[in-house]
Amino acid sequence: MSAPVTVLIADDQALVRHGLALMLAPEPGFRVVAEAADGAEAVRLAHEHRPDVVVMDIRMPVLDGIAATERLTAELPGCRVLALSTFDMDEHVVAALRAGACGFLPKDISPEDLVAALHVVHGGEAILAPRLLTRLISAHVTAPARRTPPPPPAADGLTPREREVWRLIADGLDNTEMAGRLGVSPSTVKNHITALFAKLRVRDRAQAVIAAYETGLVTARREP
Fold this sequence. Notes:
Elements: E1 5-10, H1 14-24, E2 30-36, H2 39-49, E3 53-57, H3 65-75, E4 80-85, H4 92-99, E5 104-106, H5 111-122, H6 130-140, H7 160-170, H8 175-182, H9 186-200, H10 205-214
Parallel strand pairs: 1-2, 1-3, 3-4, 4-5
Helix pairs in contact: 2-3, 3-4, 7-9, 7-10, 8-9
């Protein structure tokens, strides 16, 4: 029997921390090893317990979730971060993805969705809320008046198929869906994604999606 996935929960609200821990308590595949009330404590406890995944609130005192995520991904590369945000527009979520978070979900997530997301993140993939991501990017990534955009990633060397795969990732398709759309095997899609990430110098799907919007490969859909 494989060892359970170890989880650290970081949130400044005790009720939220305990609620998330209670969601995971009945799950034999997970074990909550620590709870942190701020980002600095999350970093300290992560070094102490070396969890597989940190469930990270974005807005916290002392050290916010973005800065804590940046430190964790730099100092403990084997530790993956799943960011949480209030459901609706939150400009800090995109910054958390850039800092190295493997995805984000709203705080009102169901126990089933939390368990599924932790499995995905622990497995090395990114988990996103596609509709919320599109709204965030529409407001915060594609708004040049609000900030100076970073230089575009090195995308000149992409093949037409890699560019097509990149576009499908930005549309929220998983590997199986992309394989069906392209008429190839899932393993071929995985090979394209590996090459794509290396050329774009991105860590995962979350950063690839942001890069797709920042370079203009895709544009945010405006809600009517």
